[in-house]
Amino acid sequence: MEQGAQLLLELGAVVLALGILARLASRLAISPIPLYLLAGLALGEGGLVPVVTGEEFIEVGAELGVIFLLLMLGLEYSARELVAGIRSMAPSGVVDFALNFTPGFVAGLVLGWGIVPALYLGGVTYISSTGVIAKLLNDLGWSGNRETPVILSILVFEDLVMAVLLPILAVLALGGSTAGALLAVGIAIGAMSAAIGFAYRQGDRLGELVFHRSDEVSLLTVFGLTLVIAGLAEGANVSAAVGAFLVGISLSGEAVARADALLAPLRDLFAAVFFVFFGLSTDPGEIPEVLLVAVILGIVTATTKLLGGGWAARRHGVGQAGQRRTGLALMARGEFSIIIAGLAAGVAGAEDLPALAATYVLLMAVTGPLAAKFAEPRRRDVTVGHGL
Amino acid sequence: MPRIEETSLPGVGIRLDFTAEDGSRIGVVHHRTGRRELFVCMAEDPDTAAVSFTLSDEDSHALSEALGGSTVIANLMDLQQRVEGLAIDWLTVDADTPYAGRTIGDARIRTRTGVSVVAVIRGDEAHPAPGPDFHIEASDTLVVVGTPEGIKTVDQILTGG
User: Are A64 and A174 in contact (CB under 8 A)?
Assistant: First the structure.
């Protein structure tokens, strides 16, 4: 068959399959991320139906997926929220980091991977899934609960830590020296402070400048700007993801509210491609080997999130039930764990990391929300004026 | 009045809530998407939203009107008690009235019935104290004050009588 036709058929089949999976996830009221990962595993080498021609396209799409995920994450937070997050959540955020980074890091060392891959695994177990948790809070009607600001602020803190962590990992992955890593972190922190400071004062004006009453103009401007900054960041070893996050932070004001509607469909498409790509590049044959480690890590880091989250909630005067809910909500890992594991591609000693991270996220993205749901069975959720 | 507390929910929006007299916590989460979520936490467990409703724009308007309505009615009852024989009513202008598109002065409401038009409600907007040169349109609601008989006559005028 002609190659162009084959490419379209393959991509079409993949995206269509993702559509069916997303529908299934919505029916089961779970996050679609684990299903996308499973689809990638099934399609990859050693999987059921290997994709050949489309792989290059999927690879580029996956990179765009990471950029969109981080751009939208940055857009979601205002500078005020970020500063407040750092101020009020510093002790809780540090405890959360210590409790949840350590298990992954130690596991990496115990497995004999070496320090750099172990740091990546620490990142994987540390960071909760903002996407899964935001949806969970909504689905369970927890938005009005007393602990919800605590949960969201911890997520903000984690996202900021990730923005510092990614450049460190990127430099170390390239075999850079400690000095190089420190420089990259310096650049990342400097750029982030500059972006937050800028957003504080001029973010609205930049937002007005970038966004236009025509959706077309806004989309092309934001997308192009983000890619340029992401490219510059990647060139400076700060990682493209951090660059995109900075663009998101720098833009604020009225216009940004519209960006959500504009960019969300693109993010959903390319993020799905990213998860598939991660599954594709993971050998499903390795999963049985890492299953036990993933389960143990899952149990340990579910407990550490419960402890850390509960402690943070107690500090903010939340009662026992709310403390438990905080930990349960934070249990879910998802997109960011996969992003961190994805950046480890090619790192010496990290050969088992993709399979372990995929298995771990499959477990945590499903069991986290389920645990939260079953822990709080008595809820009356009422929707007014929308049928039923 | 209890103090309404404002809490930022990073990435979600803003939460406004207050503790009611019976100890329950009542509030609204304003999502950045524009969605409003009304929630109630019972006094036994003020941390947990026992009920939450998603309200559309229209729902929110309707609810606030229903809540505010009690004070309006109370005020009106008060007014009626103070002035014996005074009635107040809301009259809708029908499409087939000869006065649609004409002024209040043209309808000679005050001269014919002694009833005063104190406000005209058009869509979401209220025009208080309209002058005689104010144009009435079909489906406007006139707020009128006068004797019950007078108001009945005005209603007939506005329905094309």
Answer: no
